[in-house]
Amino acid sequence: QVQLVESGGGLVQAGGSLRLSCVATGNPVGINVWAWYRQAPGKQRELVAKINNNGVTDYLDSVKDRFSISRDVDKWTHTLEMINLKTDDTAVYYCNVEKPGWSVPYTFWGPGTQVTVSA
Question: What is the reported pLDDT for 54?
Answer without folding.
Answer: 93
